[in-house]
Amino acid sequence: MIATRKLKNGIFKGLCLAATLLGVGILVVILFTLFQKGLAGLNWALFTEVTPGPDAQGGGLANAIVGSVMMTLLGILIATPIGVLAGTWLAEYGQQSKTADTIRFLNGMLMSAPSILIGLFVYQMVVVTMGHFSGWAGSIALAIIALPVIISTTEEMLKLVPTSLREAGAGLGTPRWKVTVKLSYRAVGTGIITGILLSVARISGETAPLLFTALNSSFMTTNPNEPMANLPVTIYQFAMSPYESWNQLAWSGALLITMSILILNVLSRVLPRLKKRRSA
Amino acid sequence: MLRALPRDGDNFFRRASFASAGLISVLMFALMASLVVGAWPALHKFGPGFFFSDDWNPVTEQFGAANALYGTLVSSFIAVLLALPVGLAVSIFLSELCPQWLSRPLSIAIELLAAVPSIIYGMWGLFVFAPWFGESFQVWASDHLADLPVVGTLFQGPPMGVGLLTSGIILAFMILPILTSLIKEALSTVPNVLREATYGIGATQFEVIAKVLLPAVKGPIFGALILALGRALGETMAITFVIGGAQTIETSLFMPATSISATIAEQFNEATGQLHISSLIGLGLVLFMITFVVMGTARVLLRRNRK
Fold this sequence. Notes:
The complex is a heterodimer.
Chain A: H1 2-38, H2 44-48, H3 62-94, H4 98-112, H5 115-130, H6 135-159, H7 163-171, H8 176-204, H9 208-211, H10 231-240, H11 244-279
Helix pairs in contact in A: 1-11, 3-6, 3-8, 4-6, 5-6, 6-8, 7-8, 8-11, 10-11
Chain B: H1 5-46, H2 49-52, E1 56-57, E2 62-63, H3 66-97, H4 100-115, H5 118-144, H6 164-188, H7 192-200, H8 205-216, H9 218-234, H10 237-242, H11 260-267, H12 274-306
Antiparallel strand pairs in B: 1-2
Helix pairs in contact in B: 1-12, 3-6, 3-9, 3-11, 4-6, 5-6, 6-9, 7-8, 9-12, 11-12
């Protein structure tokens, strides 16, 4: 009796361990594939030369890298002030009111809306209105994806600010907005920045919304008023193509983008801890 | 000027922050409205039949959502079915069985699975996983499972690698982290007294977990499952790579199929006419409605349990 119970327990623990190894193993296998196939194309030309024509020799991803960085930065620049302010309203003013609850619910729904729908939305609002695909449209799509993440992290963080800190500020006759900006933001600034970093990581791999907004471009451009090259869509087109040189560039781009995103993720975990250690 | 600011500053700050928060409602409303407006020509032409017809032919301009809807639902269902047991086992291992020094790095590794972009899952799925899966499991299954009564038809067909089942498996990997982190969170809310009491009467770890902990967090696990389902429904790039892109409904899980998001991603830029684009946006509207209902349910369930 005791032996069978112990045996069951052992089998159960073994299965749980196996499942965990499977999960971690998949991450390892994906990273291994990326290094195995992408490392060969990781050279100077990848960063300095623009995307080549079909079946051509050489070339790199310079235009795609520049476009991706630009659209991600523009997207975050649009989303951050709106997101931080909206999060502030929810935490400081809205609190438990009906309006705040509704906005929180809608924010959650926006966060879980499939990103391809954000692409369709921006296509109809911006691309159709402007009459052409553009870097702006891409940045706006990315901003809409980043926004709900920034809103909810800002709110969560501001909720951690002790009321006594606010009261202390208010007691000195400081206006409320100044208490929020000078005391609360400063107290939980690292947390808010972590949220922003995470949303950078999230949007920099997004492909679907860029398909109908920024589209792609085989030229180097820094003008967001034109269709703009970007890594994800380039990877998609090149990976699906029959040309070996394009496939190689797709794998190298995939390695580049995944490593940047993983580094951002790890950074966003380490940052709050470093800060804590320094102030301790 | 500066002196007057503190008072007006308060007003200004409050208004600016409220406007930002209100923007979310405007965005959600505009998103829904733009889908309805964009889909209108197709809905007007095909009527309610748009949702049930399995016709999808850009040449004759006949469009219906059934194929894509079928692929979306089946692949997501497979994903949830596969991810649930694995996610349960992983979260139990990480929160109950594993020593603390090991639990943190392993948790981070599992969470990083969620950070890997969808398109990378797609490439890996198409070039690495699908060929291997075709040669190993699918060949074996068509020899051993295809002749079984009832379930046999699910495993018939050529071992191509890509198809509905492959999409479901790739989706399962992608939703594993969210499932794991939500179940872990739920397990952490179970009071320690329960564990101690059950260990105290001589129960094994398996018995404590299966008979005390899991029944206590049934509700949140169900909520987590629905949330993960919502994620799987809207996933685009990974599916576009591995589902095969065929506008058909087949009984076999090995056959190529399509999903709502894959159809939109593949055809939007090559759409031949206004009606084609409108039908694709109509598919988007269907996806929006499904995810809205599923995610709304999940949120209500999870919130009720948290209180």
